[in-house]
Amino acid sequence: GNLALASYRNITGNHKKSQKYLNAAIELTETCYQMWHQMRSGLAPEYVVFNENGMFPGGGVDYYLLRPETVESIFYLHRITGDEKYRQYGYEIYQAIETHCRVKEKR
Description:
- The protein has a two-stranded antiparallel sheet with strand order 1-2.
- The protein has 107 residues and is mostly helical.
- Helix 1 packs parallel to helix 3 and helix 3 (69-81) packs antiparallel against helix 4.
- Helices cover 58% and strands 9% of the residues.
- It is globular, with a radius of gyration of 16 Å.
- The relative contact order is 0.16.
- The chain is built from four helices and two strands; from the N terminus they run ααββαα.
- Strand 1 (47-51) and strand 2 (54-58) form a beta hairpin.
- It has helices at residues 2-9, 15-37, 69-81, 84-101, and strands at residues 47-51, 54-58.
């Protein structure tokens, strides 16, 4: 998200560098989205291992901390680029959270 904002605000005053920041933000956000999308539950693992064979869940933890960073980046990129795929990414993540993270109310 911060790379996308830096690009949008052109904080360096250099348009070529700002485009480089935007491209990096797009690629990084795509990788983060894939961490969610590739999981059966639709929830990103707490840890991910990257190697020559790809990206895999790692760490063996049995909890999920509801991290907002990917959704924040998706929101910024949708606003900055207008690309509807980011809206779809966000909705897919929302659905996974609603399905798997809701707790029953206790009274």
